[in-house]
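Cross-check.
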Amino acid sequence: MPGPALALSDLSKSFGSLEAVKQLNLEVQRGEMLALLGPSGCGKTTTLRMVAGLERPTAGEIIFEGQTMASVSRAIYVPPDKRNTGMVFQSYALWPHMTVWENIAYPLKLRRVARKEAQAKVEYAIELIGLQAYAHASVTKLSGGQQQRVALARALVYEPSLLLLDEPFSNLDARLREEMRVEVKLLQKRLHMTGLFVTHDQVEALSVADRVAVMNQGRIEQLGTPLEVYESPATPFVRDFLGRIVKLRVAVLGQDIAALEGAEQVRLRVSSNGLAPGSRAEVSLRPEEVEVLGDGCGEAPNAIEGTIEALLFVGGRYEARVRAGEQAITLDLPRGPSWEEGQTVRIRLPEGALRLWPLKGS
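Predicted model, tokenized:
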């Protein structure tokens, strides 16, 4: 069937005077995993619940596989059980009095699937999640990661056309989150699933999704591949929300030249991006793009000297709070050298990695 698997057109949702989602337009392609990423209260879960049929839109349309699931203007609303979607909830929502097998089989029972066919589907789903040894165990005996697998298998067992995941890893510890990210990614590619994935965790969105829609205050601020939104943020909100960032205030001196605020003798080469001389701005780049210079490097373009104020060992690297003039930044230092607090460090901000952003009110 031509066209996207899911299309949201001018979709809005209000709760009284609160506009949770504001005229959202979005398409999810077949076989694609798309993440709705944003902070609490940005409208991402409300959007997912409207797609699932658990919330009615205030305005707009939801079209799935070419069929209208909801249209406020045409008074169309298809109930959740008629939308052929599978949903994995943040709380797993498993039946505690049922075994793994019974939980996974329950959606098939509701749909009155023949016993022999249901048995084959459940066996396949349990094999997909690797819990054959726990098929007849109570779900209360499973670990959090195993329970999450059961919730995923239950959502997949009746072969939905669209998989919906609402913060599915938030209740897991760090190690299990890493494992489940990999498992969901592999499973999605293996089954060629179409999925809509809600999360506030940047790492989850960037690692699991094919595309990421960054949401803020009910709207999408940027939509693109994980690499696009990470390396080329369209707005300061996207820049700051997606991972760690190094920012320094500067004054634009002229074409592609800026002076570090509080250390005006330091000159940086950076595209002025049309900002007039005298404008106050911020330069930014990711911590991994900062270069640490050795003692024998001599003069280097865009080099800054600073003092290590705080040093944190985090395993594979150090996180250092470095003061440069009147400003302080947090950056990564390699494990090799013997770093100390109070030590002077020279860093370079590569011109090609720097972005210039106007400061509000300047």
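The domain at 6-241 is CATH 3.40.50.300 (Rossmann fold). The longest strand covers residues 18-28. Passed to J.P. for a second look.
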